[in-house]
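Retry 2 of 3 after timeout on previous attempt. Resubmitting structure tokens to design endpoint.
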């Protein structure tokens, strides 16, 4: 698909979810590569209110109408997890590039269908793990590649928060893809795959499934086994104090990211320890959502390939699916990715 010749990606927002309103739509406004062209909701009054707030020229009362708009080049999909597949495929078939919230789908098979649809239509499909686009990762990658902390020995990750009293929250609907693994467990799993550049061989996950919360996993702890005996130990939850952490452990040192997944400014600082000597590095301030959008636009303009391909998202979904199977069946699950 060709985008408009002003080298400005015109975005349509499919759904007025909080992540769109609070993070992605403001980021499009801050970017130099994109503009807000349209917003859609199944409630026209809501889409008009959001459009007015962000000075978006068009508001639609259905997702279908937005997909029919020839002045929309790309869509961002922040819908509940169970709707990702349907609307990503419909957007691709309408000739729109697609940036879809994480997790891309509910299963690896669904993700494969989405990737195939995008490939057939000749459009881009990307999973919106914004943290990977923050520039601090260029420096962290250099530290790892230079062997400053020695050989990698393991990774520890956590992402938790507490919404246990919000019983109407969509995260508590199992049929909608609710649960802590889908919502926040996907982050440390994604980060470990990203850091190691490898796919896991097996997973073992223990979870607390709560009848009071729709039967979803409200807390989970797991071991993700990578080649060479390297493991990710992680926990995730929606029923405990807010925490974020990623610790990369090497034979000679560690890299610790206290705010591992949502940081942008000074909170993006990380601690490097080498043979007992600690230092704190503060990277350049950057909005990871803006960086994600700019990377996506560069790929849409043909300036460079997508940094993270649909194939990568399919593999990530296979790991997440295995974690859920392990938690539900209380057993170790092997993977063949």
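Retry 2 succeeded. Sequence:
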């Amino acid at each position: 698909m060709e985008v408009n010749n002003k080298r400005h990606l015109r975005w349509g927002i499919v759904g007025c979810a909080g992540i769109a309103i609070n993070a992605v739509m403001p980021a499009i406004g801050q970017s130099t590569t994109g503009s807000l062209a349209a917003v859609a909701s199944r409630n026209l009054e809501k889409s008009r209110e959001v459009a007015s707030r962000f000075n978006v020229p068009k508001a639609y009362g259905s997702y279908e109408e937005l997909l029919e708009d020839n002045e929309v080049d790309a869509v961002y999909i922040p819908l509940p997890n169970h709707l990702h597949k349907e609307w990503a495929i419909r957007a691709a078939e309408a000739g729109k590039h697609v940036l879809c919230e994480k997790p891309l789908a509910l299963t690896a098979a669904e993700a494969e269908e989405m990737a195939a649809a995008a490939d057939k239509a000749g459009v881009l499909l990307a999973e919106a793990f914004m943290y990977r686009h923050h520039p601090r990762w260029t420096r962290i990658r250099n530290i790892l590649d230079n062997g400053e902390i020695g050989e990698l020995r393991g990774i520890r990750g956590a992402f938790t928060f507490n919404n246990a009293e919000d019983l109407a929250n969509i995260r508590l609907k199992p049929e909608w893809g609710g649960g802590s693994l889908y919502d926040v467990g996907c982050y440390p799993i994604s980060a470990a795959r990203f850091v190691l550049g490898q796919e896991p061989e097996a997973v073992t996950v223990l979870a607390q499934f709560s009848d009071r919360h729709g039967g979803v996993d409200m807390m989970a702890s797991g071991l993700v086994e990578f080649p060479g005996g390297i493991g990710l130990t992680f926990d995730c939850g929606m029923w405990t104090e807010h925490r974020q952490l990623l610790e990369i452990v090497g034979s000679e040192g560690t890299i610790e990211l206290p705010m591992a997944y949502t940081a942008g400014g000074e909170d993006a600082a990380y601690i490097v320890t080498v043979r007992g000597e600690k230092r704190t590095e503060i990277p350049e301030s950057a909005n990871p959502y803006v960086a994600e959008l700019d990377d996506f636009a560069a790929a849409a303009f043909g300036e460079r390939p997508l940094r993270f391909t649909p194939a990568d998202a399919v593999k990530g979904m296979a790991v997440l699916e295995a974690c859920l199977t392990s938690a539900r069946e209380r057993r170790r699950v092997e993977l063949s990715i």
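Attempt log closed. The two ends are 31 Å apart (CA to CA).
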